[in-house]
Amino acid sequence: MLTRHRSTQDEVPRDALPMVAGVSARRASDFAIFAVVVAACAGAVAFLVHAEDQRVVLSALVACGMAWFAAARFRVIAAVERGAAGHPWLARLVLVAACLAVIVVLREDNFGLLMLATVLIYATVCLGLTIQLGYAGLSNFCAAAFLGCGGYTAAALGRAEGIAIPDLVVILLGGGVAVAIGSLLVLPLLRTRGHYAALTTLAFGVMFNVFLDANELLGGPQGLKLAPITVFGWDFSNDLDLFGMTFSFYANYVMLCLALTAVALALVGLLDRSWIGIRLDAVRLDEVAAQVFGLRIARWKILAFTLGNVLAGMAGAIYAKMTGFIAPNNFTLGDSLMMVSIVILGGIGNRWGVLPAALIVVLLPEKLQFIQEYRLLLFAVLVILVLVLSPGGLLPRRTRTLVAGRQA
Amino acid sequence: MSAIGQYVLNGLMQGTIYGLVAMGFTIFFGVMNVIKFSHGDVMTFGAFGALVAATAAAAAGLPTGVQILAAVSTAVGLAALLGAGISRLLILPLRSAPPLNLLLMTMMVGTVIREAIRLFFPNGTNSQRFPALLPPGGATVGGVFVRYDGLILIVAGLLIIAVVHHIINRTRFGLAMRAVAEDQETARTMGVNFFRVVPLTFALGSATAGFAGVISGLYYSEINYGMGLLIAVIGFSAAIVGGLGNLWGAILGGYLFAGLQTVVVATLPTFSEYKNVVAFVAVIALITWRPTGLLAERASERV
């Protein structure tokens, strides 16, 4: 509350008084802070992914946590937000450059790049969940099932003889199938509310898993194998040679996932800024009031549900192609819960919060081998602590800014 | 004929377990408007407690009757304590949080219990043999083979349902509980000790789950750390189908779910692996048809 109030006061002089020179200097310094923070984050991610020694990883994690608290305490996060808002396109450029730099640094680390791609896949699914849970208020406890829809679509199409569908189309079809299967849930979701709606998705998630386990055609519990992605003759399973450097073939997948995540981020951002986002917020906050104002609840709920499932299905198709193997075990209720936890950990409704949260949830157990056995236990305790101590998550959602520079 | 009778008995057994678990869900929802998803794992916890107690009693050379008593009282006591603890430490402080947060939190509490059993119980990853304490064998009645232990367990389950019903509707504590369920603030101004009634309510609901755990262990003579998850989803479904907050609805939902499973297994033996798929499809269809459950409480929404 306090920070928001101050930033409102900070913004006022710009419109009220002719202090142009001072303001532009402030904007530049904010942007510098933004660039430094992005560079620091990229460095931290590259270091964490690459580090092997358990003690080094642990101390790096503690340092990151302390840096985060310090940043929140000294309002660096707010400055970063202002800096990015001041020069949006430059900010995007910096982000892309930071991502490429991370890929270049990790170019020979197969496992590191695979993890990074997995983080991006999870982030994409969770951006879809942000639309569903964060904006429209639809409970979805079967995100992993929609991820699985995409994955199994890719696997089934790969096994079909005599049909050669380009892999990019396969990824799109993965999204389409997830929507088609999700549409079975639309009617139950529209008719029910609250816990009843939560149960619908929960039951669907469990059912999906049991079905896959029992279905011999889809490989049963043993699962299915998949061929790697080929785009316009560019085989993703070959190492890359660029500018005299050798990149592990996983770099291909990281870049593809990065593109998908960027599209998802842009989509969620546009939704948030548009009248659609406002309507979704209205539907979430008070269905009856929204109805009274003439909004068609069903239409907006279906839109949000569909958009989220498209993202999950596409991410699932890439995930399956990347790992080369899928089984029902990859798409359990536990995975769905993990995705919901990422959304809440990041700060429900904040699209940028998803990235650090996905990073923590995916990276932590992989990096700290000594907690491998205890990872589910520790993860569950972590989520409980976040829910009790800081229900807003790492980056709580801000009030929407409708006019640039002014708080709504 | 005898095959059908067998299926009916199996279904009744399953339905009793589901009904006991669903009863907990519906009690918690009725009083606090919260879904405690760790309920299934509380049941597992009770069952493991019963296993330890029964084994200890057997090692001490006590008679079978005492072993059963030890197992049941340990399971019920442990589950009740755990349920009350969860409600006092985690659910009460968070009661004004969004329902989604609470649901996720209780799911994570369930994960903690489940993983703790897996990691800290000796050889916890594998299924544990539950000692057979009830008389073996059975009798053939009208061509149907009736296992004595099954019969005893079904009767005991029904007895527990009756006891819980009596506590809720005929005792002072039940009156306080129903008052809190009806209107929290008014109940508190009338002198109901909210912070004592709520944990006690959770203890009551969890105790029935602990009892269900013992029943399940005794009947299938096997328990494992993960059994609570599916039971929780099924119990939640049963409570929802019956109508949350309605005790009879939960019991009806439990027997309905077990009935659906049994019908699938009986009519399509080759598809018996799909029994849960069919049952869950039926559940989703049922709540689409009756969005507030079969025996919904009469309620109009205040805007």
Quickly count the domains of chain A.
2
Query: What structural class is derived from the secondary structure elements of chain A?
Result: mainly alpha
Mean pLDDT of chain B: 88
N-to-C SSE string of chain B, H for helix and E for strand: HHHHEEEHHHHEHHH
Question: Could you walk me through the main structural features you see in this protein, from its secondary elements to its overall organization?
Answer:
The complex is a heterodimer of chains A (408) and B (303). With 408 residues, chain A is mainly alpha-helical. Chain A folds into 2 domains: 105 residues, no CATH class; 299 residues, no CATH class. Chain A is 72% helix and 3% strand. Chain A is built from 17 helices and 6 strands. The N terminus of chain A is likely disordered. By secondary structure, chain B is mostly helical. Chain B has one domain. Chain B contains 11 helices and 4 strands; from the N terminus they run ααααβββααααβααα. In chain B, α1 runs parallel beside α5, α3 crosses α8 and α6 crosses α8. In chain B, 50% of the residues are buried. The chains are: A mainly alpha (408), B mainly alpha (303). The interface between A and B is large, with 43 and 44 residues.
